[in-house]
Fold this sequence. Notes:
This is Sn-glycerol-3-phosphate ABC transporter ATP-binding protein UgpC. The protein has 397 residues and is α+β, with helices and mostly antiparallel strands.
Amino acid sequence: MASISMKNIVKQYGDGFPAVNDVSIDIADGEFMILVGPSGCGKSTLLRMIVGLEDITSGDMMIGDRRVNDLAPRDRNLAMVFQNYALYPHLTVYENIAFPLRLAGASDDEIDRKVKGASETLELDEHLQRKPGNLSGGQRQRVAMGRAIVRDADAFLFDEPLSNLDAKLRGQMRTEIARLQKRLGITTVYVTHDQTEAMTLGDRVAVLKRGILQQLATPRELYENPGNLFVAGFIGSPPMNFLPVTVEGNTAKLPFGSVELPPERAERAQGYDLLLAGIRPEYFDDASAREGARGSTFRATVEVVEWLGNETYAYIPYDAPPEVEQQLRQLERDLDGEALHTQLVAALSGSSRIREGEEAEIWVDASRIHLFDPETGRNLTVDAEHAGTIPEMQTTT
Length: 397
Ligand SMILES: Nc1ncnc2c1ncn2[C@@H]1O[C@H](COP(=O)(O)OP(=O)(O)OP(=O)(O)O)[C@@H](O)[C@H]1O
Ligand SMILES: [Mg+2]
């Protein structure tokens, strides 16, 4: 096992396009690191540079204390687990797992010991004599991992391994991969464009946008302290609401009414006319469910109500000035289509009796509102101590 360290990694393809642009990420020995971002942000390119399938234009790729930029893939001792599993259909599970050992000319004894060891860990004992074609998607995934395990690789690399599976199996496999990774304690880099996978699997998550690292942090840090509009909009489902806001003193004027901000947050808004307020759906509730709780309330007409049992989504349209509208539209494009209409999504208690078309009293926890600079997209209220690494902020301080 080993740590992986990327220092100022750049990848320019033939046409000069920087697919990966000055990315630095340190992955600790045994850590589960996620690379996430919308399509085309450079995740696969970065992963392929770690394994050696893609040349590195500049920067240092370190595995343990070795610089591997010029090492062939087979000399890097990493195991890539491909999306399509790449199993041999005519070979048994046993022989599929044994394959890399046979290639390396290992003895039958050694092969048997390692295959049995892997199959025990992966709970594949009863399937060893079966063919991959007769296995479920999850079992096939485990065979592919078995093949990686017997090689004693320093790290596992996954590129969207679950994207072909249906939602239920994807959920099961997610849990399985998380469990195996913990048990094996092997350094893992996992590429996905799915924020749920990123949040649930990763020890830490690197969020990329157009080849540039936006933030590198734990799932909780990303969720609670996104460094900019992009990360804020990408992490979380339904996404964070972005509303035009002006701040005077400690009072924030939102499209629905005014709320009182904590002074330390309001202070960060000084010198700005118009800002974007970031409010997660669950910072709202039906006011009747929060009587006596700290926070502000406002009245608004609820256009659509979706009752999910445990919670209720209330959709409340609002008007935004053109400059805000434009910024939100750009953000929508950056996020690859996640629709950010000028409507508020509020996640209310499941017990809420608010009905469609009704003017309702809504509660909001103003202490958790983030304020974003609409020009740069920066989160002005970020708690830098609990936000992991935000490269954009480091270069300017
Ligand atoms: N062989 C290539 N030649 C030129 N440009 C390429 C090549 N491969 C990828 N790119 C470009 O590099 C950028 C990053 O591509 P990459 O495949 O790393 O994205 P990704 O984040 O994995 O996206 P996806 O989620 O769609 O798989 C894209 O803009 C892509 O067009
Ligand atoms: Mg990709």
